[in-house]
Amino acid sequence: MIIVMKSNVSKEEISKILKEVKKLGFKSHLSKGEEKTIVGLVGNGRAVSPDHFRPFSGVEDVFRVSKPFKLASREFKPDKSIIRVNGVSVGGEDIIIMAGPCAVESREQILETALKVKEAGATILRGGAFKPRSSPYSFQGMKEKGLEILAEAKEKTGLSIVTEVIAPEQVPLVGEVADILQIGTRNMQNYALLEAVGKYNKPVLLKRGMMATLEEFLMAAEYILSNGNSNIILCERGIRTFETYTRNTLDLAAVPLLKELSHLPVCVDPSHATGSRSLITPVSKAAVAAGVDALLVEVHPHPEKALSDGAQSLNPEEFCKFMEELRPVAEAVKRGI
Ligand code: PEP
Ligand code: MN
């Protein structure tokens, strides 16, 4: 249930409502928008009707949220959320580019990539130190050493870091280096991990499960939100279909639809969505036209030698061209890159 407060509501009126919510056995979430303050009730409290809250002073309206996701919904927060990462705003006017290799492979590889993607206009460096691979025999990442290399790249270039965390107990370790904690497609429904990042104070890039519906995706975001962390970027990275020419099928309609259903910013990963270097630029243009807030692109100094996902990685020259080709599309939809 959602309680919309009057625009001139006082602190005392809000605190009376919060006390009442607690008394009824619910948790309250306060959202202070530009125009309205909204109190969301979540949890399994006593059965309560919207009429219960209507007589309280300062209350403008009370209604039930029709969707199973509450805090992630536009009903709870009509204004779109902007996630701030060291001075970069995801969900603002500019489309934020996160670029870098699939995995951290060496110091040289990361430092070279970081400098080149920064020069081309990326503001966030990606790279997995812990890699959740489909095969236990594939390269599993450089782990702690990989995190150290990412920290060095951050210090040398000023780029923020997005990197994956694959286990709840690792959140503080990865969170020391990461500016954005990535939850991969294979872990979208790892509820212990979602709770752990929900309790940690860092933005989260939540990737859509490869077989998850949008409702399941938003329910995964709800786990993070209900544990106290509202800094979430949703990432569409393609879903599994019958098609085999592409690694996954990019669900482009998910971009405007997620933005309709939720206030959270939306990112597209054209590398994992297609599996193919030649498709990265065209699908990214489409994603920009569809209203995406960020792109997560794999870039490797020598894709042919990459330990993972070389076929879906751009080299630095191709990445420069990618950026140049995206700019006019962004301008056409009144966004910057
Ligand atoms: C990645 O971004 O490197 C990755 C493993 O992506 P996904 O979880 O979408 O497969
Ligand atoms: Mn990858």
Automatic annotation (TrEMBL):
<dbReference type="GO" id="GO:0016740">
    <property type="term" value="F:transferase activity"/>
</dbReference>
<dbReference type="InterPro" id="IPR052899">
    <property type="entry name" value="Class-I_DAHP_synthase"/>
</dbReference>
<dbReference type="InterPro" id="IPR013785">
    <property type="entry name" value="Aldolase_TIM"/>
</dbReference>
<dbReference type="Pfam" id="PF18152">
    <property type="entry name" value="DAHP_snth_FXD"/>
</dbReference>
<keyword id="KW-0808">Transferase</keyword>
<feature type="domain" description="DAHP synthetase I/KDSA">
    <location>
        <begin position="87"/>
        <end position="331"/>
    </location>
</feature>
<dbReference type="InterPro" id="IPR006268">
    <property type="entry name" value="DAHP_syn_2"/>
</dbReference>
<dbReference type="InterPro" id="IPR006218">
    <property type="entry name" value="DAHP1/KDSA"/>
</dbReference>
<dbReference type="InterPro" id="IPR041071">
    <property type="entry name" value="DAHP_snth_FXD"/>
</dbReference>
<feature type="domain" description="DAHP synthase ferredoxin-like">
    <location>
        <begin position="1"/>
        <end position="67"/>
    </location>
</feature>
<dbReference type="Pfam" id="PF00793">
    <property type="entry name" value="DAHP_synth_1"/>
</dbReference>
<protein>
    <recommendedName>
        <fullName>DAHP synthetase I/KDSA domain-containing protein</fullName>
    </recommendedName>
</protein>
<dbReference type="GO" id="GO:0016832">
    <property type="term" value="F:aldehyde-lyase activity"/>
</dbReference>
<dbReference type="GO" id="GO:0009073">
    <property type="term" value="P:aromatic amino acid family biosynthetic process"/>
</dbReference>
